[in-house]
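chain and backbone:
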Amino acid sequence: MIDGQGRTIDYIRISVTDRCNMRCVYCMPEDGVAKTSHHDILNFEEILRLAGLFSRLGVRKIKLTGGEPLCRLGLEELVSGLAAVPGIDCVTLTTNGTGLASRAQALRQAGLAAVNISLDTLDLVLYETITRRPWLDKALEGLEAARAAGLPVKVNCVPLLPQQKLWDVAELARDRAEAVRFIEMMPIGLGKEFSGPGQEAVAAVLEQRFGPLTPVSERLGNGPAVYYALPGFRGRIGFISAVSHRFCESCNRVRLTAEGYLIRCLQYDDGTDLRALLRKGASDAVLLEAMAGEIAAKPEGHHFAAEAGAPDGAADETRRMDQIGG
């Protein structure tokens, strides 16, 4: 589908839960959050129905997110159903990896096409500081399990603290044809309390360590990352820099929260309540009209880097990323 700005919207990120087994400092409070009741999140039948309708609107790629999506029981069943939806070309997953070791093979067999693993540091102490969990070994086991299952892997790292040793994470791309992406901190929820280094600063650290970053033209995955080659590296280094290198003009996605809200942009506190329509017995035609209307109204872009408020008068997003869908 083409939105009101002329962009092709062919990618949706679907949150399957707002729950997470970690408490990363930029995402969730240390003492946790009030859990959304199971009744209030979309069930698999509802997600599959909406996926079929999104496909009819031109969506071809689905990313399952959370919270931590592996906290949702039976995720393999959902992956299998989504992979079978006519018109959906690939179903992928973003995860912290700590529950992946025992499930990677089953997810692959269910039809999962690829996995993104969040890994902000390889330092044991710092990992626990950031995630508030001593589970680096579990995350690395999950990474190895994904590789063993034949799942294409990307590693996502959010630069946050000076002592992160970002070059250690980057080295994961040295000997394997995988990508390590550095994701700029988004000023959403608890992320507003942090100001990690931007793309130029991270690039300078990596170039000092490894040599020049050379832009590459190949497209890796569904999203907005820009990729570079490093001397002696089989894999690529990517940057997703929504604030300092605004890529709104090429945005191809919308988001569906675990509670069934269709969100057109992370900046704004609005959306369409598809769960309410589903549970009131809305027909496919009514749902398609609501979905198409939301996509058509997708704004020109965010204003995260601006001092002024939302230019169209819309309210800024106030929810945390775990509530929206990471």
